[in-house]
Design brief:
Structural class: mainly beta
Strand content: over 45%
Number of helices: 0
Oligomer: single chain
Largest sheet: 7 strands, mixed
Shape: globular
Number of strands: 11
Order of helices and strands: EEEEEEEEEEE
Length: 122
């Protein structure tokens, strides 16, 4: 059974930082492209960042470029998202995703985590 378990969310003031983690089990982690999505109340889920299988390629949505950094440790089956200079508009539930296709072009993500809430106060 595949599980993606996120952690690291919380409440932070604007300008602060958080580091999200996603621990994967039940799948060959190094064979999957991994990514982060987020969904704010009343909005559609949107792409945030992605890392290829060896993290040789990374991709970011324009609103987070220069502030967020995605990384992965294949030995630990773990995906990370370092979020710096957080803004109130970053408030959302953040979801880990796994797919054999590159995340930004995947038509349907194979596996999702349960999400972790990030709240940024102004």
């Amino acid at each position: 059974q595949v599980q993606l378990v996120e952690s690291g969310g919380g409440l932070v003031q604007a300008g602060g930082s958080l580091r999200l983690s996603c621990v994967a089990s039940g799948l060959p982690f190094s064979s999957y492209d991994m990514g982060w999505f987020r969904q704010a109340p009343g909005k559609e889920r949107e792409f945030v960042a992605a890392a290829s299988r060896t993290a040789g390629s990374t991709y970011y949505a324009d609103p987070v470029k220069g502030r967020f950094t995605i990384s992965r440790d294949n030995a630990k089956n773990t995906l990370y998202l370092q979020m710096n200079n957080l803004k109130p508009e970053d408030t959302a539930a953040y979801y880990c995703a796994a797919d054999r296709s590159p995340i930004p072009i995947a038509t349907r993500i194979t596996y999702w985590g349960q999400g972790t809430q990030v709240t940024v106060s102004s």
